[in-house]
Design goal:
- By secondary structure, the protein is mainly α.
- It has one domain.
- It contains 4 helices and no strands.
Length: 99
């Protein structure tokens, strides 16, 4: 499942009240496995990956809704920028803005 879809399904529309730490920790592990070792010459994107890893570490260790929300927002914004969507609701959660 795409990360943004996972977060929409487990955190959006009030679902944050029913999400479990185990499902969030499992996704965090998958994300870490996917991005670990990824490098980029774009400094903004590198900074975002560093921030994502910070929140992943938190999400894997504890039931922290703030970390879950930040991950959701970061993937939401990156999805818009990478895929060129003209979607107006961005969270401003990433340094990378598609440039």
């Amino acid at each position: 499942m795409a990360r943004n879809t996972f977060y929409n399904n487990t955190l959006g529309y009030g679902n944050i009240e029913t999400t479990t730490h185990s499902e969030q920790a499992e996704m965090a592990k998958e994300i870490l496995y996917t991005i670990d070792g990824v490098s980029t010459k774009n400094q903004d994107l590198a900074d975002d990956f560093k921030e994502i890893k910070k929140y992943i570490t938190i999400a894997m260790k504890e039931d922290d809704q703030h970390a879950y929300i930040q991950l959701h927002r970061m993937f939401h914004d990156l999805d818009i920028y990478f895929n060129g969507y003209s979607y107006n609701q961005k969270w401003g959660a990433t340094e990378f803005t598609g440039e």
